[in-house]
Amino acid sequence: xxxxxxxxxxxxxxxxxxxxxxxxxxxxxxxxxxxxxxxxxxxxxxxxxxxxxxxxxxxxxxxxxxxxxxxxxxxxxxxxxxxxxxxxxxxxxxxxxxxxxxxxxxxxxxxxxxxxxxxx
Amino acid sequence: xxxxxxxxxxxxxxxxxxxxxxxxxxxxxxxxxxxxxxxxxxxxxxxxxxxxxxxxxxxxxxxxxxxxxxxxxxxxxxxxxxxxxxxxxxxxxxxxxxxxxxxxxxxxxx
Lengths: 120, 110
What we know:
A: mainly beta; seven-stranded mixed beta sheet
């Protein structure tokens, strides 16, 4: 079964850091680009970041550029999102998702999401 | 990276058809055929319903169809069913390997 399982969410103070993980199973992980998409409470979806299958190409939304870093370990079938200098507006459910194909911008497999709350 | 524009709500009776629009710019929707649509039920992860404007992933009913004209894409749900009631989001490739989503449309089946 194709599956994505996020972990690492929680409560963090403004200015703090958090690292999210996404463990993949059921498909050839290294062959697919991966992404993080977030959804603030009661709000819509926001694309956060993407990484190519080999990990050599990355892209970020302007709202997180310079603060978040996406990475992956293909030997562990896992992708990560390192989040630094967190702000209240980063509070959201963070979804890990798999690209159908890198250039399509379509995400065909999603995890269940992990909640990140930035508050003092 | 401005969000695509969707109507906040749409509705229809069972068996009817409803169309949801998604308006972008010449830098995103109007510049490529990489428009996708997602369905999200409350408390659940989004589900891909349409990709590359009008293609359906395996398992998605053919009641769901997509189209595009210029800077506006559309999702049509035909033969509305109760289980179609959900939030729908469009997205588009926006260049430089970035993606932009629409604000979402809540579809109500009356």
